[in-house]
Amino acid sequence: MTFPELMKARRSRRWFDKHKKIPQPLIDRILETALRAPSFMNSQPWRVVVAGMDTVQRVVDSLEKHHNNGSTSMPYAWPASWPAPQQANVDETRRLRAPHREEPVDLFSKWAYDAPVTVFLCLENSLNEWSIMDMGAFAMALMLAAEEEGIHSVPQAKLVNNTKELREILNLPESITPILGISMGYAIAEKVSNTFVSPRMPVPEFTEYRP
Questions:
Q1: Whole-number Cα distances in Å, 3 to 7, 10, 123, 145, 152
Q2: Most buried residue among 11, 24, 103, 198 by CB atoms closer than 10 A?
Q3: Residue 119's closest CA among 142, 141, 135?
Q4: Distance between CA 31 and CA 48 in Å, rounded?
Q5: Which residue intervals of 14-172 are DSSP H helices?
Q6: Cα(61)–Cα(21) distance, integer angstroms
Q7: Is the dihedral of CA 152, 17, 197, 121 positive or negative?
Q8: Buried (b) or exposed (e) across 9-47, using 16+ Cβ within 10 A?
Q9: Whether pLDDT at 79 is above 90
């Protein structure tokens, strides 16, 4: 697969086959590929926790509890408002995705889409925005490496809500904060939500050239 083909093949899939596990050597190989992502002064700020379904079930239970009692806390706040182009992208994607939504059958599928593995990307609290950018590069490299291996993925901000409890579940010190969860597995092709391809802005709409 060429790189353009790989980029077009990778998209956020939901609904995984929970009975089809990902062998640890394969996860290790994906991580070995992803670690070549660039980082500021080669600081390599990523810290990774690979969680199986038992651990993620505890995360799911915590998410549902806070969701139900209105006490959800997030490591990063949502924007107070989106700039007009981004708001248009969000609105259009929601409109197009509506016919592809499927109701979950239980709590695990509601929050984790039955993914057999969730990769939590974590960051030392003392680091700044440059390291956030590095983590974004690592996350993309990870998802592309997984796609090339036939493993599908969906990045989920909601999986790292309720930081204090999540640290306890993942056995992390207070100096480290989980900032992204990536659900991974073998997507169920028959699920209509897995057929959705989100639109992208044309290059001229977000690019300017200078002589």
A1: 6, 11, 28, 11, 16
A2: 11
A3: 142
A4: 9
A5: 24-34, 53-69, 84-97, 107-112, 129-148, 163-170
A6: 22
A7: negative
A8: ebbbbbbbbbeeebeeeebeebbebbeebebeeeeebbb
A9: no
Please give the Cα distance from 59 to 200 (Å, whole number): 32
Residue 6 CA, distance from chain mean position: 17
Q: Mapping DSSP to helix (H, G, I), strand (E, B) and coil, where does residue 15 land?
A: coil
150: left (phi over 0), alpha (psi -120 to 50) or beta: left
**pLDDT of 84 strictly over 90:** yes
Q: Measured between alpha carbons, how far is 94 from 122 in angstroms, rounded to an integer?
A: 28
Torsion angles phi and psi, residue 181, rounded to 5: -110, 135
Helices H, strands E: what count in the chain? 8, 4
Whole-angstrom Cα Rg for the chain: 18
Please give the Cα distance from 146 to 25 (Å, whole number). 12
Mean pLDDT score of the chain: 95
Q: Which two tokens stand for residue 154?
A: 């969906």
Residues 210 and 20: their CA atoms lie apart, in Å, by 50
* The two three-digit tokens of residue 58, written as one number: 């505890």
pTM of the model: 0.94
* Cβ partners under 8 Å of residue 137, min gap 6: 37, 38, 39
